[in-house]
Design brief:
Number of domains: 1
Oligomer: single chain
CATH class: Mainly Alpha
CATH architecture: Orthogonal Bundle
CATH topology: Arp2/3 complex 21 kDa subunit ARPC3
Largest sheet: none
Number of strands: 0
Radius of gyration: 20 Å
Structural class: mainly alpha
Number of helices: 11
Distance between the termini: 34 Å
Length: 273
């Protein structure tokens, strides 16, 4: 039997507008090297944390105005805690991070808005648990949020099942792993090297020149992380994707998200009258 799922956090036009604003603000923290005309490196961490604060306020306001019930909040907390617990398991290995497996599958079942929130909260909770606080955290938060958002937007969420869905999610896992690597390098690259190499960021340089330097730097230095991350996440999805998706969909169906809770038959009769 196919379980039809609705978004736990409804992806309304207003909700989409808020997510676009939040993503646009945070994207400035990643893309500034290609548009910054100054010759001195700016203090982008301060700007980025201000952007995160504003984005979180916008998202929280939208969620509070949406019909996000107690069951949805509880599920978000449980999954965020699981992902936060999974993240440190791969901390000592090169790119082996089991958290992406659960984030992608959860966003696939519960929708793009839920995936966005889950990515943000999971990384923040993980950083608080492991002491991973620093200027890189803002970048990690939005990178994970975007991956959750994109996973929820993949086609066929309510109809595609079986091996075809696993293939789709496996391909997405590879692309998401590479996207995360690119985003993490963007926050590191401008300060990583001196200005005297062919891989360095050039303050005030042209977009084409800096793009060429960045992608050369990325593919020469980061593939040792991105390839293992992609392989590990894809293997997990292939081996355990179907049972985990089925369990998440049963949870969604039985919890009846976004429907009122009836505490007794008497209450139901009173409402019918």
């Amino acid at each position: 039997m196919t379980l039809m799922t609705a978004d736990v956090v409804r992806f309304s036009p207003r909700n989409a507008f808020v997510l676009v604003i939040a993503s646009t603000i945070s994207a400035l923290g990643f893309l500034w090297p290609f548009f910054y005309a100054g010759t001195d490196l700016p203090r982008t961490q301060i700007f980025f944390w201000l952007a995160i604060t504003l984005a979180l306020i916008l998202i929280i306001a939208e969620v509070s105005n949406s019909r996000l019930d107690a069951k949805s909040v509880a599920l978000l907390g449980v999954l965020a805690a699981l992902i936060a617990a999974l993240r440190p398991l791969g901390a000592g290995a090169v790119g082996i991070e089991p958290m992406w497996f659960l984030l992608i599958l959860s966003a696939r079942v519960f929708g793009p808005s839920f995936g966005f929130l889950l990515g943000m909260i999971s990384v923040l909770v993980s950083a608080l648990l492991t002491g991973g606080l620093g200027p890189w955290l803002g970048y990690q938060i939005f990178a994970a949020a975007w991956i959750g958002l994109l996973a929820g937007l993949l086609p066929g969420r309510k109809s595609l099942r079986g091996s075809r869905e696993i293939v789709l999610l496996g391909i997405f896992a590879v692309l998401a792993s590479e996207l995360f690597g690119i985003l993490m390098d963007l926050q590191f690259w401008p300060w990583a090297l001196s200005t005297q190499t062919q891989l360095s960021y050039i303050p005030g340089g042209s977009i084409a020149e800096n793009c060429a330097h960045f992608f050369t730097f990325h593919f020469l230095t980061a593939m040792a992380w991105d390839v293992p991350r992609a392989i590990f996440t894809t293997v997990l999805i292939v081996l355990a994707g179907n049972p985990v998706l089925s369990a998440l969909r049963r949870t969604h169906a039985r919890a009846a998200f976004l429907t009122p809770i009836e505490f007794s038959e008497r209450v139901k009769l009173q409402k019918e009258v």
